[in-house]
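FW: tagging you since you asked about this chain on Friday. Here's the raw sequence from the shared folder, copied in full. Didn't touch anything.
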Amino acid sequence: MDIQTVLVALIFAAALFYVGRMIYRSVSPKRAGCGSNCKCGVDFSNIKPDNK
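HL: got it, structure written out here
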């Protein structure tokens, strides 16, 4: 194997790892916390809607 084949194989493996990681992170369950579109413990029950 020459150096070009080794480099192409390494780049291809890195690309597969990157795409696999993106897919895994998009389908894996999200952790609880403020980064997952929660209210972070804020109670909005006392807020009245503004009817115009």
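FW: The chain has a mean pLDDT of 81.
HL: agreed, and Residues 3-27 form the longest helix (25 residues).
FW: great, closing this out.
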